[in-house]
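Please go through the sequence line and token line underneath and see whether the fold suits the sequence. See right below:
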Amino acid sequence: MVKSTGKCIVHELEGLVKEVTGAIQAANEHKLLLKDNVTGDLIGLEATASEKEKIISSNVHGPEIPEYAVMMGVIYSMLKRDYIMQEKIISSLNLKSSSGELESYNLMWSLRPFIDDEIMHQAWRLVA
């Protein structure tokens, strides 16, 4: 049950990363350059006035879309590596495992060496 849940989460995250990548590529392909008189920002010609305002305000007040995409990619990579490690630990467990082996697996499981706490905190700051 845990194995299938973890695998589902990793696959779902992979799908989200692909969607974000596709959205960024589509946005870059459809971007026609127009300079805003006030900020000098480049915005799409096809955008309505309210969309232009939203684009300009989002660029001034927060991180840009590529920052979110990169962060998603990094988090996906970390979680996938962590999941693979956990899967390997589970598959190597058996009744004949020594206590030293079990302690090593326990340590690896609890340390989560592929998860960088600073990156996770940075991601939380991006979405907060």
User: Anything to note?
Assistant: Confidence is low (pLDDT under 50) at residues 32-39, 42-46. The two ends are 32 Å apart (CA to CA). The first strand starts at residue 34 and ends at 35.
